[in-house]
Amino acid sequence: MNKNVVIAIVLGALVLIAGIQAFQLFTLKEKLSSGQISTGTTTQSGGSGSPQLPSNLQNLPEMVGGC
């Protein structure tokens, strides 16, 4: 096979894959905006709005020598 033909086939395949992924991303965005899919995030009632870190991560800067 000619080198240019192989490059054209590979490029075509990559463009096709990118098109399929763009379509899937658009479909996912539509489902999220319409509420068909839940993101699984929950909000905490009360508090400052920042999530609580697990106890083993609360003193992480001291463990790695942070200032």
Output the keywords.
67 residues; 54% helix; mainly alpha
Work out the helicity level.
40-55%
Number of helices: 2
- Overall outline: elongated
Largest sheet, described in full?
none
Number of strands: 0
Low-confidence stretches: none
Order of helices and strands: HH
Mean pLDDT level: 80
Query: Could you give the distance between the termini?
Result: 62 Å
Q: What's the helix and strand layout?
A:
Elements: H1 3-34, H2 60-63
Can you describe this structure in just a few lines?
This protein is mainly α and 67 residues long. It has 2 helices and no strands.
Describe this structure as you would to a colleague.
With 67 residues, the chain is mainly α. The protein is built from 2 helices and no strands. It has helices at 3-34, 60-63. 0% of the residues are buried. The model has no long low-confidence stretch (mean pLDDT 80).
